[in-house]
Recover the amino acids of this structure.
């Protein structure tokens, strides 16, 4: 019997691919197809020179509360010092940050609702940790949406094709290796599988190439 996943997941992945393509085709003056219209460089950006005091307060809270479970703090400060300010604070305190970037990526995607735009905001922040968080949040949204109509399903073949497309998209490969993308998808599959490792690994197996399945599985196991 072939595995099946919620229809909303396939819809999300297809929309994500469209969003990434829209960012690539947009120009600096704004009009983009998809969910965002405007200059991507201004999204969630706050000029640092105007928020020095607030940035200092953020760093103080960041240092006090430790390196994990930062989503609420990031949500509070992204509108105040920008995603750029939050990322700068994380990288200043933890130069080798990765896990600390996950929650920032989640917050960025939550605010933009656009995978392509979110990737441009994250860039290579926290050794791709920010990007990983974007995909984790996108897949988590699909899982939550499935509760609305749990009988809606789609063949895994469709999901597999979108997984491959996302990791081969020009916007993704311009900043991240395909293996890094697959690793991030592994994080997301673990969320989607509700932290059941064999289920998440089975989802990873739907990548078409062996090395992508491997990197996806590393994301599952690191997330465990």
């Amino acid at each position: 019997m072939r595995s099946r996943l919620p229809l909303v997941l396939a819809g999300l992945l297809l929309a994500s691919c469209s969003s990434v393509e829209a960012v690539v085709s947009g120009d600096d003056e704004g009009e983009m197809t998809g969910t965002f219209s405007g200059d991507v460089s201004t999204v969630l950006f706050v000029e640092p020179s105007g928020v020095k005091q607030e940035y200092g307060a953020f760093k103080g809270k960041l240092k006090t509360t430790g390196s994990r479970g930062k989503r609420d703090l990031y949500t509070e400060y992204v509108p105040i010092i920008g995603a750029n300010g939050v990322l700068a604070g994380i990288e200043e305190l933890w130069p080798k940050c990765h896990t600390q970037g996950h929650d920032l990526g989640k917050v960025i995607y939550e605010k933009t609702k656009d995978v392509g735009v979110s990737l441009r905001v994250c860039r290579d922040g926290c050794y791709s940790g920010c990007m990983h968080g974007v995909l984790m949040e996108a897949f988590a949204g699909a899982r939550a949406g499935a509760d609305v109509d749990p009988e809606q399903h789609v063949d895994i073949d469709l999901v597999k094709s979108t997984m491959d497309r996302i990791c081969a998209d020009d916007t993704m490969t311009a900043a991240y290796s395909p293996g890094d993308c697959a690793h991030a998808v592994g994080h997301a599959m673990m969320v989607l599988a509700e932290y059941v490792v064999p289920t998440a690994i089975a989802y990873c197996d739907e990548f078409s190439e062996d090395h992508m399945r491997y990197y996806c599985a590393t994301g599952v196991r690191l997330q465990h």
About this structure: Confidence is low (pLDDT under 50) at residues 1-35, 144-155. Residues 4-24+36-223 form one domain. The chain has one domain: 4-24+36-223. Residues 18 and 34 are 7 Å apart (CA to CA).
